[in-house]
Amino acid sequence: MGHELRWGLIGASTIAHEWMIDAIRAQPGNAVAAVLSGDRARGEAYAAKHGIAKSCTSLDALLADPGIDAVYISTINELHATQAIAAANAGKHVLCEKPLAMTLDDAHAIVDACRRAGVVLGTNHHLRNAATHLALRQLVRDGAIGRPLYARVFHAVHLPEHLQGWRIAQPSAGAGVILDITVHDVDTLRFILDAEPVEAVAMTPPPSLASEGVDDGVMAVLRFDNDVLVQLHDAFTVAYAGTGIEIHGTAGSLIGRDVMTQRPVGEVIVRDATGERTVPVVHHNLYERSLARFNAAVMSRGVEQPAATGEDGVRSLAAALAVRQAVRSGERTRVQAGL
Ligand code: NDP
Q1: What is the pTM of this model?
Q2: Tens of pLDDT along 71-90?
Q3: Pocket probe mutation, ligand 1, options 9, 15, 36, max atoms within 8 Å of Cβ
Q4: Tens-digit pLDDT profile for residues 108-119
Q5: Which domains does the chain have, with CATH numbers?
Q6: Whose CA, among 2, 87, 107, 146, lies 20 to 30 Å from 230?
C-alpha cells in the first residue's frame, strides 16, 4: 500500500477553509477524515461544506479514532498547547499553527511531548515556503550582497473584517498583532539570515482597531547573533502600504516586494554596483509546500524535517514575547528561547 496520511482538523477555522484543506488534499495519499469544533452545529455545517465525513465536539473522541494519523491544529492560540500535547500522547503527528503556544513553557511542553511520543511536529510558518523567500535565502547564502548588515520588514496590513474577532478583542485567546504577525517576521528572518534574534526594543501606538490593551500595530528593532539589525513594522490597520522585506549588505541589497503574504506572488530584486535585476522565481502554493515537507518528515520517520519544526515555533514565539515585553517595559529585552 502507498503512503497514507489521514488528517483530523482540530478547529473549524478560516485558515483551514481558505488554504489548508485544499493543501492537504493536494498531497498524494492524504485525506481529511474529521473536523473538531466546540459547536456541534457549526462543526457539522463546516464538515458538510468541505465534504469531511466526520465532525465531532470531543477532542478525546477525535484522538481515539485509529483512522486518524495526524492533526492540524488551527484553533485560537490559547488552545494550541493542550490540544497538541493530547494529540502527541495519542500518537498522532502534529502540524500546529503559529504561535505554537502563548507561553514558552507551553511551547517547550509541546516539543517535549512530540519528542517523547516519537511523532512529527511542525509549525505552520508558511512564509519560509514561498519561492521568493527561498530565493532570498539562497542569495544571502551565495554572498550576493556580501555580509548582511540590516534588514527591514514591511508587514503592516489591514486585517480583513471576517478576521476581526478574537484577534483584536480577546487577550486570553492570544490576541494582538505581535503574536499574529511578528512571529511570522521573525521566522522568515531566521530562515533567510540563518541567524538567531538576540534582543529587542519596541513600541506600539494606542490601538485604533483593537480593544484597549491589545496591540494592533508595532515597530520593533531586533539584533541578531550575526550582528544584523532588523526593523519590523507590523499592523492590522494599514490598508495601502503593501508588504515587503529588504536585506542590505556590504555589497548589495535584496528587495522582496509583496512577499509577506499567503498568496504565491511577489518579486525579488538584487541591487548592487552593476545595477538592478529581478531574480526569476517560479511561484508555488506555500501551504502545499508546507504539507509536502510534513509528509516527507512522516514518511522518512523523522530523517527529513518539516519546513518549520517545533523548535522553530519555540524560537519565533520567544522573539515575539521579547518584543511584547520590550513594549510593556520600555526596555531592551533579551530573546530567551531556552533551547
Ligand atoms: P478562526 O477565528 O477562523 O478560527 C479559530 C476558532 O474560532 C475555530 O477553531 C472556531 O472554533 C472558532 N470560530 C471560527 N469561526 C467562527 C464563527 N464564525 N463563529 C464562532 N466561532 C468561530 O481563526 P483563524 O483561522 O483566523 O486562525 C486560527 C489559527 O491559525 C490561529 O492560531 C492563527 O494564528 C493561525 N493562522 C495562521 C495562518 C498562517 O498562514 N500560518 C493564517 C491565519 C491564521 P471551533 O473550532 O470550536 O468551531
Answers
A1: 0.97
A2: 999 999 999 999 999 999 99
A3: 15
A4: 999 999 999 999
A5: 5-126+287-305 (3.40.50.720), 127-285+318-334 (3.30.360.10)
A6: 107
